[in-house]
Amino acid sequence: MMLESTGIPTKQDLESKMPTAERLAKGPVAVVECFQEIPCDPCYHSCKRGAISELIDINDIPYVDFDKCNGCALCISNCPGLAIFVLDQTYDEEYGVVKMPYEFLPRPVVGDEVAALNREGHEVCKGKIVEVRDGKVQDKTAVIGVAVPKEYLMEVRNIQVGGSK
Length: 165
Hints:
This protein is an alpha+beta fold. The protein has one domain. The protein contains five helices and seven strands. A seven-stranded antiparallel β-sheet has the order 1-2-3-6-5-4-7.
């Protein structure tokens, strides 16, 4: 299994977590890229809309009801595994926004141009910081929003401040 040997999920793993194209077209929505059964449930407790299912067993993998999710991103900072992202395909005609956890210092600032990285850490495109949330609610895990060309929305999962390596 690729995930166990590399830490990178397969295309099939990811497809099982993604909302439909129809749901993505309606606005921001959370995607929980959690694949392993571990004792964890902060995402469920952080969701005020009940979009993340209550876990029967604390080792269960969380499930998102995409119809209940409004993409508020409260769950992102509460995930100790940094495995939750909000995708917004409706940002504008050309670009979508990926909201992601970010724990490095210094924090990027709105307007920064960044290298947008895939799950393997390779640059796939350029991105622009459009949001930075770093208050008490985030508890040291900032939530950043990165505008990227829509074709990279499902790929981009991190950034490198200062551009390319």
